Structure formats: C-alpha cells, structure tokens
C-alpha cells in the first residue's frame, strides 16, 4: 500500500495565463452598466464604475 499523498490537481488559478479562459468585458457586460453573477448559490454584482473599472460586490 502506498500512503503517499497525491499532488493536488491543477486549478485554473495555477495555470499559466495563456491556458486560462479569457472573456472580453464587453461580451460579459453586453452593454449593460452591471450584471448579476450567481456562484455557489450566492449572487454577486459586477459593475463598471465612472472611471471604467470593474467592481465585484456580494
């Protein structure tokens, strides 16, 4: 029996930038100033500020 722990599987956070999915913010926002994102049963608000920055709030 080999009781050695297995190395963790790679996650998106550990992948090099070229392998991560990339979505253009214009595609994500679809021209709206804000969108709701549902994750793990929670709702988040992603909005564009007056300075054209993105803010994600719970």
Cα distance, first to last residue? 46 Å
Given the structure, what is the number of helices? 1
The overall average pLDDT, rounded, is 87
Q: Please bin the fraction of helical residues.
A: under 10%
Q: Unreliable segments (pLDDT under 50, ≥5 consecutive)? A: none
Briefly note the structural class of the backbone.
Answer: mainly beta
Form type: elongated
Q: Report the sheet with the most strands, covering strand number, pairing sense and barrel closure.
A: 3 strands, antiparallel
What strand order characterises the main sheet?
Answer: 1-2-3
Give the C-alpha Rg. Answer: 17 Å
Note the beta-strand portion. Answer: 25-35%
Give the H and E element order. Answer: HEEE
Helices and strands in order, then pairings?
Layout: H1 25-29, E1 34-39, E2 42-48, E3 54-57
Antiparallel strand pairs: 1-2, 2-3
Q: How would you characterize the overall build of this protein?
A:
The protein is mainly β. The chain has a domain at 32-58. Helices cover 9% and strands 29% of the residues. Strands 1-2-3 form a 3-stranded antiparallel β-sheet, with no helix packed on it. The protein starts with 24 loop residues before the first helix and ends with a strand. The mean pLDDT is 87.
Précis, in short:
The protein is mainly beta. The chain is built from one helix and three strands, in the order H-E-E-E.
Keywords:
58 residues; mainly beta; three-stranded antiparallel β-sheet; 1 helix; 3 strands
């Amino acid at each position: 029996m080999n009781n050695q722990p297995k190395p963790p599987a790679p996650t998106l956070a550990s992948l090099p930038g070229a392998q991560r999915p990339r979505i253009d913010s214009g595609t994500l926002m679809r021209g709206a100033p804000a969108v709701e994102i549902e994750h793990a049963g929670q709702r988040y608000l992603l909005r564009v500020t007056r300075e054209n920055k993105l803010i994600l709030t719970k």
